[in-house]
């Protein structure tokens, strides 16, 4: 089982490096291409064909330049907790599990209402 920067890349073993690296949270297509060019990795090489040294280089490059995976998730969680602590509108909506951005809730957002009712019972 291979991991790159804490993200599992087993499912992507047969994909090209630039495509498989976009599955890591925080890395999009442009960053994936930049990383590949900086390390001098061929465009057609697949994840399963990479050596251990190349995988270590990719991890090191991602760790230096980009906020990825668990760091990104931790930041998002901290932002939501901050909104809840200051009791702003968005924080309250997060607590309730309701839509945050002004979406209609009378006829839509059924899953939110269903979960809310289930918690109350």
TrEMBL record:
Keywords assigned: Mitochondrion, Ribonucleoprotein, Ribosomal protein, RNA-binding, rRNA-binding
Matches recorded under InterPro entries: Rbsml_uS13_C, Ribosomal_uS13, Ribosomal_uS13-like_H2TH, Ribosomal_uS13_CS
Localisation per UniProt entry: Mitochondrion
SUPFAM superfamilies from the UniProt entry: S13-like H2TH domain
Annotated GO CC locations: mitochondrion; small ribosomal subunit
Top-rank taxon: Eukaryota
GO biological process terms on file: translation
Start and end residues of each stretch annotated as Disordered: 93-121
GO molecular function, one term: rRNA binding
Bias type Basic residues, positions: 111-121
Subunit structure: Part of the small ribosomal subunit.
PANTHER family attached to this UniProt entry: 30S RIBOSOMAL PROTEIN S13/40S RIBOSOMAL PROTEIN S18 (PTHR10871), SMALL RIBOSOMAL SUBUNIT PROTEIN US13M (PTHR10871:SF8)
Family, as annotated: Belongs to the universal ribosomal protein uS13 family.
Job of this protein: Located at the top of the head of the small subunit, it contacts several helices of the 18S rRNA.
Name by which UniProt lists this protein: Small ribosomal subunit protein uS13m
Species of the source: Actinidia chinensis
Record lineage: Eukaryota, Viridiplantae, Streptophyta, Embryophyta, Tracheophyta
């Amino acid at each position: 089982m291979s991991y790159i920067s804490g993200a599992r890349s087993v499912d992507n073993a047969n994909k090209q490096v630039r495509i498989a690296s976009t599955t890591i949270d925080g890395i999009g297509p442009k960053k994936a291409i930049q990383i590949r060019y900086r390390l001098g990795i061929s465009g057609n090489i697949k994840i399963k064909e990479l050596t251990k040294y190349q995988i270590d280089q990719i991890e090191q490059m991602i760790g230096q330049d980009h906020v990825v995976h668990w760091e990104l998730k931790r930041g998002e969680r901290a932002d939501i907790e901050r909104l809840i602590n200051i009791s702003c509108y968005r924080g309250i909506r997060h607590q309730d599990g309701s839509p945050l951005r002004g979406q209609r809730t009378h006829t839509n957002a059924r899953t939110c209402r269903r979960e809310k009712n289930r918690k109350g019972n």
